[in-house]
Design goal:
This protein is mainly alpha-helical. The protein is built from 14 helices and two strands; from the N terminus they run αααααααββααααααα. It has a two-stranded antiparallel sheet with strand order 1-2. It is globular, with a radius of gyration of 23 Å.
């Protein structure tokens, strides 16, 4: 082991080990749970609804976000080199620099917004056929989501490159990128602020509006005297889900935006003086943002009775009679509830 490798190994701190462990946990289990959702929707005909297609797209985006998440190994890249500046730049842009992750995370956020709007229209305006999603429309929406996510992440990809500094430090990263605590140029700051507003702040507002309005509509309909007990239970579960989704996104993602709002206002000398504290804070809010991709499948699918039934069928294939009955029940519920109560809860 040469001197540079020894120096690099000594730069691994207790914080690195803690964050590496936390990231490993959410990546391992998040990849599995999102992969299960994708598999269930693809292989189960009764799950082929527009809502579930959006949920599958959300699972794909979260799957890619966690799969390419460098948080569980990036602290060990202090002295990493591929021997070519071009290869190092490519490695930074597409792997260690979070460019792919930025695209998939933006796609995840946009899909959350699409689901929120779809549920809002289905619950608040259930009889307006103009807003009913068909499979053709939902396929178009998914394409628009990924194209928009790629376009919004283009500056991130272009500005991420290899870090040519020779000084090794626990606070040095092998790539230079927009989302860093270091002082940035005005155009980079403008991108950070606009991106945070467009893909974190505004989606938070949209989610809260859609789900608060949906919750109010559900509570109003729950008070009707002819409402049967089963529908009331479904509405209560849906209300719980809607509230938890909005709270989870705001809690896990808004701190990231607020942090960069604060950092972009700091003077260079203040950044240098508070760099260690800001660096640790950045790692915390970044971990919270990635955790949203781990939490999403638990909120959207794990609470769904239909998903649990299909998963049980896959795990217990010998119960063919029960499987057939469950499939019929699922199909009947989806046909009866046009606003997809059961696919949500």
């Amino acid at each position: 082991m040469n001197e540079s490798n020894i120096n690099a190994s000594l730069l691994i701190t207790t914080h690195d080990i803690v964050f590496g462990t936390l990231y490993s946990f959410i990546v391992f289990f998040g990849v599995i749970t999102n992969g299960i959702i994708v598999s269930i929707v693809r292989k189960t005909r009764t799950m082929h609804t527009t809502t579930n297609y959006l949920l599958m797209n959300l699972a794909v985006a979260d799957f890619l976000t966690l799969l390419f998440c460098p948080g569980f190994y990036d602290f060990s890249l202090h002295n990493f080199r591929l021997g070519s500046e071009t290869l190092d730049d490519i490695f930074c842009k597409f792997i260690a620099g979070n460019a792919i992750v930025c695209v998939s995370f933006d796609a995840s956020v946009l899909t959350l917004c699409a689901i929120a709007v779809e549920r809002y229209l289905g619950i608040v305006k259930p009889f307006n056929k103009r807003w009913v999603l068909t499979k053709k429309k939902v396929n178009f929406i998914i394409v628009v989501i990924w194209v928009t996510a790629a376009f919004s992440s283009l500056p991130d990809m272009l500005w991420t490159k290899k870090n040519n500094e020779d000084v090794l430090s626990p606070w040095r990263y092998p790539c230079t990128r927009p989302w860093t605590v270091r002082n940035q140029k005005l155009n980079v700051k403008a991108y950070i602020l606009s991106h945070s507003v467009a893909l974190i702040v505004l989606p938070s507002v949209l989610l809260c509006f859609c789900y608060i309005s949906s919750s109010a509509a559900l509570k109003s309909s729950a008070g009707e005297p002819d409402e049967d007990p089963a529908s009331k239970r479904n509405m209560k579960r849906l209300l719980k889900l809607l509230i938890s989704v909005a709270l989870a996104f705001c809690t896990l993602c808004l701190p990231f935006a607020v942090f960069f709002f604060y950092v972009t206002t700091l003077a260079p000398n203040h950044l240098e003086q508070s760099f260690k504290t800001l660096f640790l804070t950045h790692r915390i809010v970044r971990f919270l943002k990635f955790s949203n991709s781990f939490v999403n499948p638990l909120l959207y699918a794990a609470q769904s009775k239909n998903y649990r039934e299909v998963l049980f069928q896959k795990l217990c294939p010998k119960n063919n009679t029960r499987n057939t009955a469950n499939d019929a029940a699922v199909r009947a519920r989806e046909e009866k509830h046009r606003i997809y109560y059961e696919t949500a809860v």
